[in-house]
Amino acid sequence: MSDPVTPATPTLAVRCSGITKHYGVGEAQVLALRGIDLDVRAGELLMLVGPSGCGKTTLISVIAGILDQDEGSCMLFGRDIKQFSQEERVSYRGKNIGFVFQSFNLIPTLTAAENVAIPLLINGMKMDAALVEARERLREVSLEGREESLPTQLSGGQQQRVAIARALVHKPKLVVCDEPTSALDGETGRKVMEVLKQLAVGSDRALVIVTHDSRIYDFADRIAHMEDGRIVSVDESH
Q1: Separation CA 56–CA 61 (nearest Å)
Q2: In what order do the strands lie in the sheet with 12-23?
């Protein structure tokens, strides 16, 4: 089956065309995305900003393949994962996408290092090697010494950094973050952003961040503004 739009060129990490998404039925129906057109360039850090409830989290969930759009297409590095089987989609996401959830989604019975190692284990790495990689990522987000801590033994900001390390550990081509600095003080937030930008942005990678944190806007290459389920403008940040 041919794709409904021309595949994205190699210089595009993401191409969203005419994306719509609704929740509910009948009078309770809410249209969360109203015809989104958005390109994310390979090698860039794009931020999505706008008021709460404007559709930012829904959009990144579609981009990451967690939600299916109702209409339109979303190409990731030239591929439309909505056309994949469920097994193919899980495999593709496991290798190529890192997602930082606003609620962290850490497994409470696993240590910080074990939580971070999960994507590597899913992709077939042996436990010992995965834990070595996980501990290195934890050091990069300034959590050395907390590798064996359970999530309940960590502060909210520390849990957030564990979630970020987990999203980066398998070196995905696309990293999608929902409010990655919301629980962090200014200095720690900037350190985390430096790690994100260094590890997640390259000529064959991209980073999309939903944020209300104006302190980190200067890390963006472009900033897309959303209102009422639409992209209303995209600014070059520099």
Answers
A1: 9
A2: 30-41, 12-23, 71-76, 79-80
Has residue 50 been placed in a domain?
yes
pTM listed for this prediction: 0.89
Q: Is residue 21 part of a domain?
A: no
Count: domains in the chain? 1
Tens of pLDDT, residues 130-168: 999 999 999 999 999 999 999 999 999 999 999 999 999
Specify whether the CB–CB gap between 22 and 31 falls below 8 A.
Answer: yes
Residue 19 lies in a domain: no
By residue range, what is the domain housing residue 192? 45-65+86-236
Q: Does any domain span residue 77?
A: no
> How many whole angstroms separate alpha carbon 5 and alpha carbon 30?
26
CATH code: domain of residue 119 = 3.40.50.300
What count of other Cβ atoms lies within 10 Å of the Cβ of residue 228? 14
220: its two tokens: 């963006």
Q: Distances in Å between the alpha carbon of 209 and those of 79, 117, 124, 212?
A: 21, 22, 28, 10
Tell me, what's the pLDDT at 155? 93
pLDDT of residue 102 exceeding 90, the answer is: no
